[in-house]
Every structure is written in structure tokens, then in C-alpha cells.
Amino acid sequence: MRALRASVAARAGALAPVLLGLLLGACGREDVGTEVAIPAKPMRIMSTNMCTDLLLLMLVPRDRIASVTFLAHDAVEVIMPGADRGVAINHGTAEEVVAQQPDLILASPWSTPVMRQLAASTGAPLVEIDSAASFADIRRVTRQMGDLVGEPARAEALVAEMDRKLADLAANPPAQIRRVVVWEGDGNLTGSGTLTDEIIRAAGANNIAGNFPAARHATYSMEELLQARPDAILQGESRFNPPSLRESAGDHRLIRTAFKGRRITYPAALHACGLPQAADAARQLRAEIARVPSGPAPW
Amino acid sequence: MVKRLILPVVAVLVLLACCLLSLLVGRVWIDPAVLADGLTTPRTDLAWLILFELRVPRTVLALLVGGSLGLSGAVLQGLLRNPLADPGLLGVTAGASLGAVIAIYFGLSASVALVTPVLGIIGAVLAAALTLAIGRNGTLTMILAGAAVSGLMGAGLSLALNFAPSPYAAYEITSWLLGSLADRGWDQVLLALPFMLAGWACLIATMRDLDALTLGEVQAESLGVNLGRTRLLALAGTALAVGSATAVCGSIGFIGLMAPHLVRPFVGHEPRRVLLPAAFVGALLLLVADIAARLIPSSLELKLGVLTSLAGTPFFFWLVLRLRRMAPS
């Protein structure tokens, strides 16, 4: 018995370098895969992330898109209705990469690992696009995408349009800086470092999420919301999402009475994805805030 | 005589103290003097809003839900003559959760506010009816049927998670299932209360029959107990009371199991004497757990159902060990 165990151990020991070699080999192959040259003007682009879907639809004609994700349609209907007509959809899976044979795959840092591996082994170049959490990020990501798909001028035009609107907002600040905070009903604190925070600032308002008494909390309760006395609360409107518990919590009786006329809805898609239209979101927000009754909250 | 009065009086005083504490404790510290002032002069200021729109309904809901759980636990332990019985055992909790999750994720809750609790109760009633239909022949078959129905409802919940429209929705379902009383208001109290009252009436109506049942099913029937009616009342009452409780605050375990055991040393083993004290202790337990959930510092909200399970499991172990000691070897 002991002899058998010893021999198994010996064999395992002998196998170890082989296994290690295989492992290293596999890694090596993956590296080669990602080094595949990207065509100067890709004609079959596959996007596997909702935010790159939207940017892609703005940058290239539809016949150059192999597919966008199944998530894109509802957001497209809000931001640019009809822009995805006739474009195929994918679910970000590995099989679809093989079936659609794209010449460029746009992925996010959260794309499935199997899809990445397969993309590497089929030789399709896969490029990871960061998510954007600021206007600077939006400029960078939009330009990066424009270069990738061979449409730098189009990307530059989108960035210029955004910057023009932002400059216009900055040049005409509102008479009064109102204090606002995002209340989604689940208590998640939308503070600095988020795109929403930048949009609020561009709209000329003060996001009070940062100076909450209990800023150490990742969440805040309705009690803290009341204590902070914001002039208005912002609630993300996702027309395309099914109603959720979160929204019903945002619709608490107390919220309805205490913030009567002080609830602002914003298009959630424009805050979730860093798109050049974020400037429009800021404009829209400023107009909404201007409609909030003047003076502090009544209680 | 005086000795017999001491215990109830102490219990009521403890409950009152816990209610006061529950009104004092929250994320925002408000001076008790300001709170007392807000209590006497109704006006729309911060203290009044927090007290009357958040903390009072939360306290009331904790008492109602805890009472429902304790009462139905006591009735079910008497009915099944099994110390491990609780509403979760018969599939009622899982059925209510499934109903509520369906209401939320098929978008029904947005159209009519009442839909979530009503579907929760319908889910609980269907689960109870299924358990009763399959397991009406005897106690053991009923427990087995309950386990099967729980499994079925659990599979339905997994299916809902599977088809959740987004990862966020899946997260929401799971965290909702953990059970919580945070940010509940009068709307929820008003929605659940009528169903709970009806459920309590059904449960209390079984009181006399449960005592006869301690002698055994045949003996109880020979004493004139209509077993079918008793089972129907107990399950309908549990479905209404626990179903509506689960529908407004998610599934909260172990209260229904623990409360009857905690009161038996004081009131004896007659099921009839256990019911109301068990409801009282259930309410107290849930209120204390909710206060603890608010006091324990954590960056994310500590869910009430998690806390009761954490505190309840050691109790369950103790119960199993005690049963093993008492059973003939």
C-alpha cells in the first residue's frame, strides 16, 4: 500500500513540469491571439457591451456592425430611436464569436473569460474598452473607439459637440446653486467619482452625497436623506427596465409627501454609459432643477 | 396570585421598553427631548417625519410580523405535534416569497400597489393548499408534503433568479429574500394588517382542538374534534398571517420556531396556553432583532432575516441535542 502511494507521488512529481509547460504554452498562445493586427477599417465589428454598442452605433454605418448586445435596443430607443434597425444582436457568448466571425471584438473588463479565450484562439482581435466615469473619460474612450473603427473624424466631431454644450453650460451658470442628491430607493450613495456626479456639477448644482454626516457608509437611509434636506432628489428613470423593487422603495409615501415637486427623473442610460450625450443629460438636468420650487425643503 | 402576575407585567414592561428603544434608534440620532416634543405636537418637521413616517410604522410592523410568526409557529407545533415545526416547514414562507417575487418582477407591483402582498398571500395560500391536499392523511405525510412544496417553491424562486432581467434584478431578489424592515411605512402596515387579523382569527380558532390533539389524532376525533377543519384553519391562518408578513418584509426565519419553545417553560405544555404568549414573545424577539440590526455598525444594512437566522441556528442545534437526549435510545 505504502509503495503504491509512493509511486503515485513520484509520478505526480514527474508530471508537474509537463503540466506547467502545458499551462505556460496555453498562456503563450493567448498572448499571440491578442497581438493579431487590427484592420485599419474593420467591416464586421462585434460589440459585447451595452456602452460600446451605443458608441459604435454613433460612429459607424450599420452595415459595418456584425452585432450589438441584446441589451442595447431599449437604451437606443431612449437616446437615438431607430439607430439599431436591422443590426443583429449577440449575448456576449463564445459561440457567437465563432458564428459571426467578426474582424474586431469590442469587450469590456467584465466580458466572459471563455469568450475572450475563444476570441484569442480564433484570431479575432479583441479590444477592451474602459467604462467612462467622467467627461475626460468620455473624450478618451470616444476617441479610442473612433481610432479603432477607423472613424477618428466622426469621434472628434462627437467630442467637439459635447465640449461645445459643456462650455455653454459653464458660461451661463444658474442664478442659484441648488443642493441635490440621487435617491434610488436602495440607499446606494452616488458620490464623487461617478459620471452622475460630474453631470450634476456640469448642470450647476451641488451633489450633497459627498458631505453626508455618515459618509463612511456605502449606503444611506431615508432618515439621513431627510436630515440632509436636499432641495431636490434625482431618480433614475429607466423606461426600458421592468419596474423593480428599488423603484417601489423610491416611491415611499414619505418620499412622495416630503419631496412633493422636488423629484427629478433623469435618463438612467445616459448616466450609466459614458457617452457624448452626457452633455445633453447635464442640460436637461439644469432645466429640471430650474423648475424646482425655490427655498429650502418645507419641513 | 401576586406571583402569577409578576411575569406578565415584567414581560409587558420589557416590550414597552423595547418599543421606546426602537423609536430612539436609527441612522440619525435625534435628541429624545426633541422626539418627545414631536410626539406631542404634530407638525411637519424632521423629528416628526422620521418618527411618524419611519420609526413608528417600522416598530408596529416588527410587532405584527413577529407576533404572526410566533402564533403560527405555536399552532403548527401543536397541530403537527412536532417541536421542529414552523411556518417555513410547510412551504408557506417559500410560497409567499415566490408570489411576491413574481409580483415585483413581472412589473405587476408598479400598476397596483396591493399586488405584491396579495400575490404573496396567494402564493402562501396555494402552497398551504398543496401541502394540505397532498398531506392530509396524517402528521408525517403533512410534514413530508410541506418539505416537497418548499422545494417546489424554492425551485420557482431559483427560476425567477435565472430569468432575472438583469444582474441587478437578481441581486435585488436575493437581498429582498433576506428579509428587512428598513424604510417600510404605513402603506405596508395597512396592506398587511387586514390579512394578518384574519389569519390570527383562524389560528386562534384552533386553540381548543389543539389541546385535544395532544392525546393523539384518534382520541381527538373521538372527543369530537373535526381534524380536517382544524388543519384547514391552521394552514389558512398561517398562509394569511405569515404570507402577508413575508410579502411586506421578506422571509424571516426561526422566530416561529423559537417563540413557542421559549414560552413553554413558563406556561406549560398545553398548546392552548402557548399560543398567545408565543405571539407576544415572537413580537418581542423580532423587535429586539430589528433594534440589533440597526445598532450593529456595518457599512451595508444588516438584513433582519440574516440576523434571526444567525441567532436562531444555535438554538436549533440546542433543540436537536435536547430531543436526542430525551428520546429513548
Automatic annotation (TrEMBL), chain B:
GO molecular function, one term: transmembrane transporter activity
The UniProt record lists the keyword Cell membrane: yes
Main location: membrane
PANTHER family per UniProt: ABC TRANSPORTER PERMEASE PROTEIN MJ0876-RELATED, FERRIC ENTEROBACTIN TRANSPORT SYSTEM PERMEASE PROTEIN
Protein name: Iron chelate uptake ABC transporter family permease subunit
Matching SUPFAM superfamilies: ABC transporter involved in vitamin B12 uptake, BtuC
Lineage of producing organism: Bacteria, Pseudomonadati, Pseudomonadota, Alphaproteobacteria, Sphingomonadales
Localization annotation: Cell membrane
Family in the record: Belongs to the binding-protein-dependent transport system permease family. FecCD subfamily.
Membrane topology: Multi-pass membrane protein
GO CC annotations, alphabetized: plasma membrane
Keyword set includes RNA-binding: no
Membrane-spanning intervals of the chain: 60-80, 87-108, 114-135, 142-165, 185-205, 232-254, 274-292, 304-321
Keywords carried by this UniProt record: Cell membrane, Membrane, Transmembrane, Transmembrane helix, Transport
